[in-house]
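pasting for ref
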Amino acid sequence: MYWLELIILTLYTGALSFIFVYSISQLNLVYKYRKAKRKNLLPQIPEIPADYEHPIVTIQLPVYNELYVVERLIDAVASIDWPKDKLEIQVLDDSNDETVDLIAAKVAEWQAKGIDITQVRRPERKGFKAGALQYGMKIAKGEFIAIFDADFVPEEDFLKNTVPHFAHDEKIGVVQSRWGHINENYSMLTKLQAFGLNTHFFVEQNGRSSGGHFLNFNGTAGVWRKSCINDAGGWKADTLTEDLDLSYRAQLKGWQIFYVSNTVAPAELPAAMGAIKSQQYRWTKGAAETSKKLLPQVLRSNLSFGTKFHAAFHLLNSAIFICIVVTAMLSVPVLFIRNLSTGWHTLLNISSIFLLGYIFLIIFYWNGFKEKREGFWKTLKEFVPQMFMLLSVFLGLSIHNAVAVFEGWIGKKTPFVRTPKFNITSKKEGWKGNKYFVKKINPLTVVEGLLSLYFMAGLGLAFYFQDFALLPFHILLSLGFLLVFYYTVQHTRNA
């Protein structure tokens, strides 16, 4: 029994320690961001001089079976304000359904208006999105490459607000904008996603940029210097996050990513839990694959300790889900050890200190949340319930994401699973009849439902032992797994 308890407490404390150090890295980004903001050092929209020579820009639209949103995308991109003779649009169409004909008609419509737009069809869909981008780049006319995913609706001034930044420094390889959300208020799930993404773009990206640390191109709504892509080795399909992979390879080569938070590219958030899970799976597994591939290079480089530290935790951020699952699953046995065993008080007290990591993460999210709101008390009133729900759903997705991370680490290859798009902007709209929605319950969903019951048992034990130290954690876990289970089943039934 002694050795079993030792193993449980060691794993529990070790996982909490990782969360704690990770949260410190995020807290440091908060400090760097607030310092830069206070000193007015964050990038501004560039002033374009009268004699500015507009470079040729190629806009790439990687598309695969986007029946519901592709026309909206093409219309928005074709309306971007940039000299017609300096703009090329490539619709990188890998579709195998009616989307092909929709694109052909829309391309012909804009060609008739004098826009240089082509539907690019590969002979073989090899390498998924990375393969499409690399194929298109080989025939691209532009010195700069802008990329938009199918769920984005860029504003007319997007290129004017991004491309001129390249003229300031030849080592700028990427200019990345902030994502906006066209359906943020559709549901609780879209509000929570916007909450999390806003914190990433306001605090994390600005903090990394202000601190001179590595950051990432977010896969879309950004512009690349073509020579940077080539110098870094081009787009690779050996990870599911080709954007993170190329970002780090480019920065290891000495290129810079320039982040502009005051330029916003609106996009549609996934409204259904199945779509959210698809997106989360790709992001977390891809991050794990990229960390396995590039972390050794980062650690061997001549970068400063601070940059290495932040880069390591950036690449390992998906590992947080492994640690959450470990601490969550072991938290119930820990309750028994706390109340039925002796001799572990010191270790348990130390592990309690590491729970501060969750407090640090709340501070991190608070700084992102308040950026879009005014008035402390009003903001706090909105923040508390949304933060509670965000943490719940975040924890509820942990087992799903942990599996993705584990598969990434062991090298299990899976196809690039696209996130279903719905073209949903109002509460009256839904996704019933959407042909891309996977109408099948994954066995892992059953596990999520059972885990909700498991942590409810933890709630019961808290009252049985009169030990409420882990009660908030078990409340969040019980609710989180229940919500993820419920929404997965409900949204699948309504498809």
